[in-house]
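Margin note: ligand = RFL.
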Amino acid sequence: RRTAVAVVGAGPAGLTVANLLRRAGIPCVLLERESRAFVEQRPRAGFIEEWAVRGLEQRGLGERLVAKAPQHAEFEFRFAGRRHRFRYGDVTGQRHFVYPQQLLVTDLVAQYTDAGGEAVFEVSDVELHDLTSDSPAVTFRAGGDEHRIDCDFIAGCDGARGVTQGYLPPETTVKAHHDYGIGWLALLAEAPPSADGVLFGIHPRGFGAHMARTPDVTRFYLQTAAGETEADWPDERVWRELQARLAVPDGPITEGRLIEKRVLDMHNYVVEPMAHGRLYLAGESAHLVAPIAAKGMNLALHDAFLLAEAFEAHYAGDSAKLAGYSAACLPLVWQYQEFSQWLSDIFHHTAATGENPFQARIAEARMRRLLGSPAAAAAFAELYIGKNADF
Ligand code: RFL
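Resulting structure:
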């Protein structure tokens, strides 16, 4: 069997690439390890930046998202027992769209398959072949049989635990990485939101956050010490810490049944370049950014837009964009990595660590500057809402 582009992974990156290829009339096959039902229910991200929403909309992929997603243009820091409203929409004119990732994935799967796109779910043993030849191939197992697809290109969109990144040769690839040395306990509670949006609690006991998701379900995060697991966090401790870290005199957190409790390992990486031969990586297969600033899915969409455009240009006779694909993606990747790290220093370093308060005082100084200086606030807002400057 032959196609133009084999796309490995049906997350936001792979589904966007596959939809855009389909729309441009470029044949492709989408391969996904999980079932369709599984990917349509996997809860992860929720905040999509306005430029990414408009990018989906302009490409005919954002209609339901724009119609349904609530928009946020402000959040609240809770610091030293007080509320500090931060209205980034006023400064930037842009907003976040709050749309759970599984809804975006559901929309993108439907649009792709309704348009006759070919997808194979529940594949295993994906292997890539002949990447530096003109005709690479993907082999895999599905439905008990072995399959082979010969193609022109492979889009590696299989996320942080996929296989395609492993095909970048170590001699020509650099993997930059950073470990935050802490964890986040990611929680979903069957509880109505306690505020209309995002609350970031900056507290000597560690970071805590609240994110309104739907009228009945709220996401929370708690900073945990390195090595702690879910077993260290019985429900009673979770609620005690959330109430303490997000405390203000007049606003207790509404509690409810915890339906997700998962420690996230807080680390980042970037592989450079994001391509080898006929293989091009997009999304978390190429770069992982811990969910501190809610950047991961936005970057996955950015890559996907650029990769689809580069494939289209190639089939129209111009290969320059494919050659420049990795270099075009990486500047935004590094801006978002840098911003996440800067924010991490504020979020996590106020936690009392041992006897030396140096980092905590630095973090407090940054907080006061952010809240007291309009210039500092504007610079922060620009990065928080994302790609609206040429950096
Ligand atoms: P995905 O979504 O992981 O999709 C990869 C797909 O590839 C499949 N796969 C394979 N398929 C075939 N063969 C193999 N060998 C395969 N191995 C894997 C997987 O099953 C999967 O379907 O990667 P992609 O497309 O790059 O998208 C990245 C985003 O999912 C990710 O960046 C975000 O979820 C990160 N993130 C957030 N990003 C935001 O922009 N805003 C947020 O608010 C936000 N919140 C979050 C988040 C991530 C979280 N977790 C779980 C780490 C909140 C959380 C809790």
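The mean pLDDT is 94.
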